[in-house]
Amino acid sequence: MNDDIERVLYSQEDIAAAVRRLGKQLSNDYRDKKPLVVCVLTGAVLFMSDIIRQMDIYLDIDFVDVSSYKGGTASTGKVELIRDLDSDVSGRDIIFVEDIIDTGRTLQFLEDLVSDRGANSIKVCTIFDKPEGRVVSAKADYVGFNVPNEFIVGYGLDYKGFYRNLPYIGILKPSIYSA
């Protein structure tokens, strides 16, 4: 897998430092709120497990699965709910944990979903933000790294289901996905 990477953007150590920083910030901001932390499957699983261990507060967790990529390198433009939340979000403070925000469509879909169900507040924590990819107005409240408009993999991010287990973030060689 490492041979498929053009270059490493963020090392395992870089990511760990960002996770610690974000965990501390979230702990401070949610000290007395007992938020529901929602992992956006599947890419955010690694980040979610790391970030909640850095949060020194009472919290609940849940999972939601949405899809707009269908295994490719670009969004289809349509967000589909694959797995809904198990938790009642009415009156709750929600923190969505995302791997990457690109077009913003998934984020907009999720914010609308829990807003319509009566969430008290909605915040988004993402380890990677790609503002150049936005096609809708969407913004993360907590960001680990702003990333270039390149196809990146690792630390939960995949191409056709592979590369999620790389401990770093790298730019995938174009020859891999254009073949």
From TrEMBL:
Q: What class of enzyme is it?
A: transferase
Q: Which GO terms describe its cellular component?
A: cytosol
Enzyme Commission code(s) on record: 2.4.2.8
GO molecular function terms noted in the UniProt entry: guanine phosphoribosyltransferase activity; hypoxanthine phosphoribosyltransferase activity; magnesium ion binding; nucleotide binding
Question: Which residue numbers delimit the Phosphoribosyltransferase domain?
Answer: 10-160
So which domain of life are we looking at? Answer: Bacteria
Q: What cofactor(s) does the depicted protein rely on?
A: Mg(2+)
Q: Which UniProt keywords apply?
A: Cytoplasm, Glycosyltransferase, Magnesium, Metal-binding, Nucleotide-binding, Purine salvage, Transferase
Q: Which InterPro entries match?
A: HGPRT, Hxn_phspho_trans, PRTase-like, PRTase_dom
Q: Where can this protein be found?
A: Cytoplasm
> What reactions does this protein catalyze?
GMP + diphosphate = guanine + 5-phospho-alpha-D-ribose 1-diphosphate; IMP + diphosphate = hypoxanthine + 5-phospho-alpha-D-ribose 1-diphosphate
Q: In which pathway does it act?
A: Purine metabolism; GMP biosynthesis via salvage pathway; GMP from guanine: step 1/1; Purine metabolism; IMP biosynthesis via salvage pathway; IMP from hypoxanthine: step 1/1
Broad class of where this protein is predominantly found: cytoplasm
Q: Which interval of the chain is the signal sequence?
A: none
Magnesium in keyword set: yes
Q: Name one GO biological process term.
A: purine ribonucleoside salvage
Q: Does the keyword Cytoplasm apply?
A: yes
Query: What is the stated purpose of this protein?
Result: Purine salvage pathway enzyme that catalyzes the transfer of the ribosyl-5-phosphate group from 5-phospho-alpha-D-ribose 1-diphosphate (PRPP) to the N9 position of the 6-oxopurines hypoxanthine and guanine to form the corresponding ribonucleotides IMP (inosine 5'-monophosphate) and GMP (guanosine 5'-monophosphate), with the release of PPi.
Question: What's this protein's family per the entry?
Answer: Belongs to the purine/pyrimidine phosphoribosyltransferase family.
Q: Which PANTHER family match?
A: HYPOXANTHINE PHOSPHORIBOSYLTRANSFERASE, HYPOXANTHINE-GUANINE PHOSPHORIBOSYLTRANSFERASE
Protein name in UniProt: Hypoxanthine phosphoribosyltransferase
What are the leading ranks of the lineage? Bacteria, Bacillati, Bacillota, Bacilli, Lactobacillales
